[in-house]
Amino acid sequence: MADTAANRQGGWYDKIQGDIYTLLESPAGTNKVRKAVIFFIASLILLNVVVVILETVNSVYLEYTAFFHVFDLVTVIVFSIEYILRIWCCVRNPQYSDPVQGRIRYALSPYALTDAIALTPFYLP
Q1: How far is CA 109 from CA 11, 18, 24, 63, 113, in A?
Q2: Which pTM value belongs to this model?
């Protein structure tokens, strides 16, 4: 088989997709990077809870409004990227292997719907 540009592209594309799938979907004990991803996402969720609580204290909110806005923006970007990457690489799971219908089924799964619902308020006017 000839080494065409399409073959090389498919190789690196598949590798990147597989690596991202491993980072986002494999069991926690898979490797250190996967553990770091889980820790980072869980920490960001907990920090969001703390920030939402702090935002309800008017004096704190007024003093740190800029911080709260930047923090909200950064976390929404991070969680949006995570959500998009999960939809993109879900086809690595045999349950969602169809490129279109698999992604739709994944997007309608309880886990993905929870993520989408959590992100929705930021994107609504």
Answers
A1: 29, 20, 16, 40, 6
A2: 0.86
Helices 5-25 and 65-89, axial angle in degrees (round to 10):
120
Q: In whole angstroms, give the CA distance from residue 29 to residue 41.
A: 16
Give the residue among 25, 3, 12, 17 at the shortest CA–CA distance from 99.
17
- The tens place of each residue's pLDDT in the chain, 125 residues long, gives 444 555 555 799 999 999 999 999 988 777 899 999 999 999 999 999 999 999 999 999 999 999 999 999 999 999 999 999 999 999 999 999 999 999 999 999 999 999 999 999 999 97
- Of 85, 67, 87, the C-alpha closest to 77 is 85
Q: How far is CA 79 from CA 59, 63, 98, 115, in A?
A: 28, 26, 24, 8
